[in-house]
């Protein structure tokens, strides 16, 4: 029988969840990353290429504009928990917000609404589209998250941190810093000195583009 990276067969998913909850109290961030590996997907450093928490959250939808291949990584609430843990390891704003804790399940709709409003507004901003309605939608989505009572306990809830991250992006960054990766269409901040960064992650999307160009050239070159 096929087993996942942690040795659990597909039918044992509920048992693996019990193991994750048992160990989360010991090493919460590491366990969330391991949980992602067990389910066949990991929140690696590449998944946090956006340069801001709000952009990394927006980028949790893969192939957003491909109706047949689109993947929403947050369809599973457990994946949101894993994202929060991995953001503590790889997120660009981890020092700003301190330890992130998962958003509560009852706050999920507001959190997803914030994610979608963030993507729409900043994608339009990169394309220099004049869409004040999208800014208004984003501000309302931020308010919908922040007006809810914050849960008790240590750490910053993921949805609250994402709302503050989006607010920071509204007041900045400098023009030309916010970009869309031409390979994967993720949003990212170009923090290079001369704003020359093209890809969200040169090691991933940049190399894929190079590989495609090399393949095309090899096909076009005449054979001896």
TrEMBL record:
The Zinc finger CGNR domain sits at 177-217
| Entries under SUPFAM superfamilies matching the protein | Jann2411-like
What Pfam families does the annotation carry? Answer: ABATE, zf-CGNR
Q: Report which superkingdom the organism of origin falls in.
A: Bacteria
- What name appears for this protein in its UniProt entry? Zinc finger CGNR domain-containing protein
């Amino acid at each position: 029988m096929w087993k996942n990276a942690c040795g659990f067969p597909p039918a044992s998913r509920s048992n693996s969840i019990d193991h994750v909850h048992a160990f989360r109290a010991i090493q919460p961030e590491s366990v969330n990353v391991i949980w992602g590996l067990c389910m066949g997907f990991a929140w690696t450093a590449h998944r946090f290429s956006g340069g801001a928490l709000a952009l990394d959250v927006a980028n949790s939808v893969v192939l957003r504009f491909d109706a047949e291949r689109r993947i929403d990584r947050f369809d599973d609430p457990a994946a949101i928990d894993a994202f929060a843990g991995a953001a503590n390891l790889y997120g660009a704003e981890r020092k700003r917000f301190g330890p992130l804790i998962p958003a509560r399940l009852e706050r999920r709709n507001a959190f997803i609404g914030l994610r979608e409003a963030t993507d729409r507004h900043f994608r339009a901003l990169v394309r220099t589209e004049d869409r004040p309605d999208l800014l208004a939608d984003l501000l309302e989505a931020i308010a919908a998250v922040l007006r809810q009572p914050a849960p008790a306990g240590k750490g910053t809830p993921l949805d609250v941190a994402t709302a503050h991250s989006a607010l920071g992006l509204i007041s900045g960054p400098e023009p030309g810093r916010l970009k869309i990766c031409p390979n994967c269409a993720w949003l990212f901040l170009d923090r290079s000195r001369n704003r020359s960064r093209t890809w969200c992650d040169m090691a991933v999307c940049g190399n894929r583009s190079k590989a495609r160009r090399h393949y095309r050239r090899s096909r076009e070159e005449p054979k001896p």
